[in-house]
Amino acid sequence: MDTDKFFSKDADNLVPSPIREAFKLIEKPGIISFAGGMPDPATFPAVEIKRAVDSLDLSKALQYGSSPGMIEFREKLPDFAKMRGIKDLSTDNVTVTTGSQEALYILSFLLINPGDDVIVEYPTYIATLDAMVLRRPIFHGIPLQEDGMDVVLLERTLKNLKRKGKKAKLIYTIPCSHNPTGVTMSTDKRKRLLELASEYDTLILEDDAYGLLSFDRNAPDSIKSMDKEERVIYTSSFSKILSPGFRIGWVAAEKTISRKIDIMKQSVDMHTPTFNQSIALELLKNGTIERNLPAIRERYKKKRDSMTEAIEENFPKSVTFTRPSGGMFIFAWLDKKINATDLLPKAIENGVAYVPGEDFFFDRKPKNTMRLNFSFPSQEQIYEGIKRLSRIL
Q: Of 94, 103, 169, 375, which one has the fewest beta carbons inside 10 Å?
């Protein structure tokens, strides 16, 4: 039977995520994978998690929960948010989501109509683009500089839209340890971004998944912490600082937006698993998550250093790459003659995998780019994987 005729127009826009497809590569023997964005399993507080499970009241932890999230968990998040400079956050503004990806998906459907103008960094996170593409917006890409988004070009883009009688519906940014580039936005640019959002009456969607993973210095306070007009919708995640398997993220927004998120979540998955929230709550209460952060940062800093050293020693001199101050990724620009997507099968044949960079650009134009993950492989695998990749390059 031909089933294509039964699909909706939105279903026609669905494409497999290259990152999710990359997870299949990790299962192949002998493959050194720089492809996924997986944390190092050694950072998972397994002993503390087991203790937390043993301490649970299972009559509550195994029961249905409310759509915004467990009230006890939501009451802890405002204190936790202070680590990112966010003060005076109310539980009424907070929704616990099934990973931050659910928040990005829900917000795409709540805020974007077909044909709306949406500003994104160029490049930006694949899965956010995947969610937004389903709404069929008009994307405007703002290149990144060493200290974050090019706010001069951003202002020019907003002016041009206004001149045409239009305005951006929202600006999506990953200001700390950006995925895929690792770039961190300066405090001055964060302030300027807020000024432009106010002047041109648009929203900012701040994806702060890596804000607590800064290596060399504390990351600048979140954009949300500077927000005086409630223009910033803030998302964060416990995937990188606790465990991605828990699938716990959260979003903070103006109360009306927050209420809409709660209502849509009712039809998406009803609520984030109560069992998972209960464990994370216990680890927040006893300080495990906060105590674990320095060790995670130190571990990833060493791996970043290993990868940058290996690239400098082995890659062709024509390759340029970012030097992240935090997070999990390095982004590389290859010789313009090289198509990183076409090169990937050969890399896999030689036992190394990465994510082609074109997938991080909404127009998929820069073909000579790749994202390399340093958080998951061991330092020995990093050196060997970069050597294998350099021989292919």
A: 169
Q: What is the mean pLDDT of residues 22-30?
A: 66
Q: Do 308 and 230 share a structural domain? A: no
Tell me, what CATH number does 75's domain have? 3.40.640.10
Q: Judge if 167 and 279 occupy the same domain.
A: yes
DSSP category for residue 5: G
In a domain, 49, yes or no: no
Least confident of 29-38, 267-276, 351-360: 29-38
Mean pLDDT of 161-173: 97
Number of domains in the chain: 2
249 against 19, higher pLDDT: 249
Phi and psi angles of residue 89, each rounded to the nearest 5 degrees, phi first: -85, 135
- 63 & 30 share domain: no
Asked if 361 contacts 123 with a C-beta cutoff of 8 angstroms, the reply is: yes
DSSP character for 252?
Answer: E
Residue 215 in any domain: the answer is: yes
- Report the first-to-last Cα separation within the chain, whole angstroms: 45
Residue 242 three-state SS:
coil
In terms of residue numbers, what domain contains 339?
A: 4-44+291-392
Q: Is residue 50 part of a domain?
A: no
Span 230-260, pLDDT tens digits: 999 999 999 999 999 999 999 999 999 999 9
Spatial separation of the C-alpha atoms in residues 25 and 19, rounded to whole Å: 10
The contacts of residue 323 (CB under 8 Å, 6+ apart) are 182, 308, 330
Distance (Å, rounded) from C-alpha 134 to C-alpha 224?
A: 27
Q: Kindly list the distances between the CA atom of residue 377 and the CA atoms of 77, 124, 329, 354, in Å, as whole numbers in the listed order.
A: 31, 23, 12, 12
Alpha-carbon gap, residue 229 to 324, rounded angstroms: 31
Element (DSSP H or E) covering residue 178 = none
Q: Which residues pair with 203 in a beta bridge?
A: 170
Mean pLDDT of 169-189: 97
Phi-psi group of 107: left, alpha or beta (phi > 0 → left; psi -120 to 50 → alpha; rest → beta): alpha
Residues 299 and 216 in one domain: no
- Asked if residue 159 belongs to a domain, the reply is yes
**235 and 330 assigned to the same domain:** no
Q: Which residues pair with 248 in a beta bridge?
A: 98
